[in-house]
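Q: what sequence does this backbone want?
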């Protein structure tokens, strides 16, 4: 192969040829780099378009047609509903600090599994001669404790993304089990106050600024069951119908007060009256308070907690109650009929019974 020196008659021409060759090499390198950047950009575009379509479908405010269909139903058709909230996944509660409860990742897994088992058992073994059309599972917030205040020091891990990655897969397993047991499953999600990423609660962008939002969206993308639908609004609450019953799901942290002799009832009913103005509903359901209140006849259901009693409740002198979640039945003609707690605590199996 001939070199540039073979074509150069003098040193000046040789230098010019070398400079031209260097510029050509740089241009070729730049072209290759731009092609790689373009390929990466196109891949990112496809990924973002897929995510956008997923989020658009997931954040739809419309419940599935089987919940609101006008077609004539059998008189015995019902829909099962349950709330899963205030799980505070990855928080550690020490029996030595409160004397009534213990909680950690292992115990949380046991309780989540027991929640699924009790939900299925109560829905099919304890009621009969009815046609169960499906399940509406309401994720009512505070799935994780997050790192607010000093809670980060008492979690299984101080890293929020690690907690979310672990519990997203656990939630998927629970939903897949429910999808096998029920003809159809609809998931409705709102965020809580503990999972937020800022010390002060936000108004705009409140939903996305939460680990609860990330866990719900992660689970939504991982669930493989075809009979599962999702409703993950960008607002702090969600209004939907089950047959003719209008249900408003919120976390409950918007309630102010609750420490007086009347307990949580007066402030919650005041909030409900305000919410009625823009979002008329028949039943308000929420978590947050860790006090199971099954009062559908009064238009209210407040969930218990998966975590149970802790040192915060002990220090403030709050009444203790076992770890439990809300379960109820909705009929097309009579609205909410049966109501019952799902007890998810088993002291002996959890290894802390005194």
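A:
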């Amino acid at each position: 192969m001939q070199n540039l020196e073979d074509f150069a008659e003098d040193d000046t021409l040789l230098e010019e040829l070398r400079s031209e060759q260097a510029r050509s090499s740089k241009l070729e390198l730049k072209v290759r780099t731009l092609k790689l950047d373009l390929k990466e950009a196109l891949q990112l575009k496809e990924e973002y378009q897929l995510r956008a379509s997923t989020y658009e479908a997931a954040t739809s405010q419309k419940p599935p047609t089987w919940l609101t269909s006008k077609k004539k139903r059998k008189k015995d058709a019902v829909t099962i509903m349950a709330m899963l909230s205030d799980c505070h996944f990855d928080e550690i509660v020490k029996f030595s600090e409160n004397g009534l409860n213990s909680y950690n990742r292992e115990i949380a897994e046991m309780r989540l599994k027991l929640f699924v088992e009790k939900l299925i058992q109560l829905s099919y073994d304890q009621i009969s001669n009815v046609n169960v059309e499906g399940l509406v599972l309401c994720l009512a917030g505070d799935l994780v404790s997050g790192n607010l205040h000093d809670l980060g020091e008492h979690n299984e891990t101080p890293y929020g993304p690690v907690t979310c990655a672990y519990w997203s897969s656990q939630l998927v397993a629970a939903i897949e089990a429910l999808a096998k047991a029920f003809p159809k499953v609809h998931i409705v999600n709102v965020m809580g106050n503990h999972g937020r990423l800022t010390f002060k609660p936000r108004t705009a962008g409140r939903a996305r600024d939460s680990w609860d939002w990330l866990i719900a969206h992660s689970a939504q993308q991982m669930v493989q069951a075809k009979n599962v639908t999702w409703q993950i609004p960008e607002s702090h609450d969600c209004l939907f119908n089950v047959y003719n019953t209008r249900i408003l799901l919120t976390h409950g942290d918007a309630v102010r007060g609750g420490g007086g002799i009347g307990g949580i009832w007066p402030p919650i009913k005041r909030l409900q009256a305000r919410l009625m103005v823009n979002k008329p509903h028949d039943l308000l359901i929420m978590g947050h308070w860790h006090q199971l209140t099954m009062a559908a006849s009064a238009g209210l259901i407040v969930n218990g907690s998966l975590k149970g009693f802790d040192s915060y409740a002990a220090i403030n002198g709050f009444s203790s109650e076992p770890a439990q979640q809300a379960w109820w039945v909705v009929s097309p003609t009579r609205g909410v009929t049966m109501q019952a707690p799902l007890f998810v605590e088993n002291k002996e199996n959890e290894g802390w019974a005194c």
